[in-house]
# Entry
Amino acid sequence: MNQYDWIQKECAELEQADLLRHLRTLMSPPDNTITIDGRYVVNFGSNNYLGLSTHERVIATAASATCVFGTGASGSRLMSGNSYHYEALETNLAEIKGTESALVFSSGYATNISIIPVLAGEGDLILSDALNHASIIDGCRLSRATKEVYRHCDVEHLKELLSKSSDFRRRLIVTDGVFSMDGDIAPLQDIYEVATNFGAMLLVDDAHGFGVLGRGGSGTVAHCGLKGKNIIEMGTLSKAVGGLGGYVAGSRALIELLINRARGFIFTTGLPPGTVAAADKALKVMRSSSNLRKRLLEHAETVRNALTNIGYTLLPSQTQILPVILGEPQHATEVAEALLANDVYAPAIRPPAVPAGTSRLRVTVMATHTDTDIEHALDGFANVYSHKLQ
# Structure
């Protein structure tokens, strides 16, 4: 028996359960319409919510910085990779978030698995929402702190768990602001009140709210009326900002500690100068473009209502993320493939990304979708529904 035979066996088991994933090849910019696997389709599967990854001023900034400073940082930020573009970007992020300081990491995933083990460790307690992102779950595991999972957005359950936590040194509540697979918004005002009453720290992952919610796109915390409160915010530059990277925003003392303790910051090469400069430009465009956010959420409302009227079952999303529930993995993949044949890309999401029995299409709209794009996509959904779901 070959010592690697188990790998092929596990892949076969995934395929039999309709859980084997395959990479699709994008042959165009990630815009409102794309060419994927050789097919020209309306893109209902992107996190580029505001279309900033293809914005001409953002691209020009990235190109200019790359021409002058090269294609890579060539070192960690504590060594030689801390280009001066970081200072402008982090100042901009702190101002948007209303915090003393901010720190940029190589990705949102790297941010969570780096900062959570600094905030909590052995002898501490982390309280995590049941539907938090995988990067939060992995950050909790790496921390070696005790972890309690509270029911999704259930503040009473959170309070119950906290009431039994007096023996722990520190307590950290962590939640997504906007949940990436459900599109709903955490009850942050109630969670903040609970955190304050119990003396717990609060960390909000704002990956899918930043750029979309709150004044100037400042995010979910601002949307919930809590900007300027004692909350640690993290997020990503790869969704509405349209680039790459993650960040944390908080007190100067917190940022100083993370620079010295966060392993994913210390031991990772810095982002390319063009990437950092582009993110800073994208933030400036984002802050001055309320029309983009308005159009994005209008598109979401149009598509949400239309899909419901066609007959699809959607979760009660409040954002640009519209989960179409189909149940079993095979059903979700079949519907996604049928939509692709109708020139609509809406990816199937299956366990472990979502709970068993809730496989779905994760439909996301973009501010740059035209009315024609929306109409074409909805025609595709109607056609698939009549042939596959009735």
User: Anything to note?
Assistant: The chain has two domains: 19-50+290-389, 56-287. The domain at 19-50+290-389 is CATH 3.90.1150.10 (Aspartate Aminotransferase, domain 1).
